[in-house]
Batch of 2 targets.
Target 1
Amino acid sequence: MAIEGNSSTVTARALASAQRELAAIIERYCDDDGMFETAVPGLSFFRSSTTSTPSCGVYRSVLALIPQGAKRVTLVDETYEYGCDRYLVTSVDLPVVAQVTQASVQAPMLCFVFELDPRKIRDLMGELALPKPPPVTMTRGMAVSELSLAVLDPALRLARLLDSPQDIAVLAPLLERELLYRLLTGARGMHLRNIALADSHSQRIAQAIDWLKDNFHKPLSIDELAGAANMSKSSLHQHFKALTAMSPLQYQKHLRLQEARRLMLVDMHDAASAGHRVGYESPSQFSREYRRLFGAPPLKDMARLRQSA
């Protein structure tokens, strides 16, 4: 019993030490709050020195680690919280509401974000001969899991490469492979195995999501969407909701409204033109659905965002 306790203490100390080092690296490469791409392909850092109100966005297929601070992510009516003790994995692009829940000027929220490439996951699965999920298995496209040293260690070594840029080209692919291996063989490996399998339901839904992203401004045709995914309409609805927690129509609405918000905030479009650009024929419907998602009609929302900027 004492040996197990000592072993657990050593592991906890090693985990805490690795988190402190990763946090220091992230803060060193983030000049201010916001998202920063790094010289390591696929690796970005995010910093926030304050907690935030809930904000909408699209999470890509990523691994997210927070060595300092905490976040809450809501997918429709499901809440995922992660921080120093847990990491988040998303296997497809998902419209979410995110909120920084633990941060301060003295101890900002610091996040390691690494893009997950389904092709590399698929290749590694083939080499390792990992068992494939049953054809009927469908897991949600977002999950959190307890952070282990096995996952944190290769992530930390990837971040360390920023201090020796001459090593990135050779060592980054090896460390990415190790990180993917740890994820695939860990508690949430099934999420990644599902999306990486060619012709799986998850992979077909990913194709449907790509189609929606390219055509969100057009009237939604379930027939076209089902054809893009090579699925029947009933199967499309069933598996789309299982993976994303929403229907294709709900997903399209999120994409439309988030793009309209960007057009107004960044490109200075008025509400009518932004709504029309993303596919709304009725200004009143656009305003109603915008308010339902963002909590305020377009004009009030823009005033609030610009005041807080």
Note: The chain has a mean pLDDT of 90.
Target 2
Amino acid sequence: MNAWLLLLLAGLLEIVWAVGLKYADGFTKPAASAITIAAMAASMYLLALAARTLPIGTAYAVWTGIGAVGAALLGMMLFAESTSIVRIVCIALIVVGIVGLKLSAPG
């Protein structure tokens, strides 16, 4: 499978586990905790597979960027977190960074 697709899937699973941390409530809720831990493990595994081909600095930055953007957006939608212009601009800057890393990396 394409390394960039693996990395995208790893990033999406990072969003799942990041949001899952909120629902797991300090790992006191078994079902949410199990989903969160499974997503963590799968996300790391897919990141490791992608890093076989992609430079680790690029893979890790893109992975964390996808997770950060997704978690921030879901935080706004699910948990009524701030939707200030400054916050949205900063999220957009992360997206620009992810795109820049994708365009500048081999693979």
Note: The mean pLDDT is 96.
